[in-house]
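Memo to structure team: turn this sequence into structure tokens by end of day. - J.P.
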Amino acid sequence: MNDLVDRYVFTALRRIPEQQRADIDRELRASIEDAVDARVEAGETREAAVETTLTELGDPERLADQYAGRPAYLIGPELFPVWRRLLTILLWTVLPIVVTVGVVVQIFDDPNIGKIIGGAVSGLLTVGAHLCFWVTLVFAIAERTGNIIKVNWSLKDLPRYEAQRAGLGQMLTGVVWVVLLIAALVLQQFTFSDVPLLDPANWSFWWPVTIAVLVLRGFYYVWVNQLGRTTRKVAVVNAVLTVAWAAPLIWLLSADRFFNPAFHGFLDHDGGDFRGWLNTIIIAVVAIGAVWDVVDTALRAERTRRGLPGKVPGTGGSYDFR
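Reply from structure team:
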């Protein structure tokens, strides 16, 4: 048509997958030609008609995103409220806990007020940045992988209102926790201190296995969200994954192979058996948490199988939608 149109179309096609370019090239040029011809018939010069048409089409890169069905934002309106709520919860719970633990460790290690304040500020900024980054990354991936959390709606997609049904927010919360745990496991080895807290000898087997199980747990959350309800199969898979991470962790703690023997800091406080007490406490927490998770999921699966009614928030009653 002319150089201006070629430049516009080329700019748009650069942001479109190669397999779609030929069809969109023809479609876009035809659309521009029709609009220009209509303006010329209305009395405009061809040059003015081309400029007006392209101006009305707008930014070619934004137009390319529309053709490719690609979102031009990081987190869209559907996920933004969940992202904001989850990030707020993590910043108000995880961040203070991590910073407090860091301050306590510093007090035991070297009670220097300057180091304590510096460590608290550094921990606040570092952990806060990691929380914001990883949570946003998970949601951005979810936004762009629409087939994971979005499907073409039909009547079969109506919610079942089963008791304590896991929703989108719970799925994303689970995935974010998986990402954070993996990041913490890797980063404690290389960034937080010269001597890692956890036993580096376990990188030969146990830590890679733990990461693999956590990745499977992340896929589990996505699978449960797609399935839409808690079934017996879900309960069995959850039990297997729970045992897969809890059993090795309990064994490492009981064999005193969880913490790094070279890490002396707070683990050797006052020359007592602090490490042994800490191992025992963690074992109890892990065991109780694992049992509760397995039993709770199994009970929800049984309620689903029996078709027991669930409470619908805001209605004040229970409804059976079988």
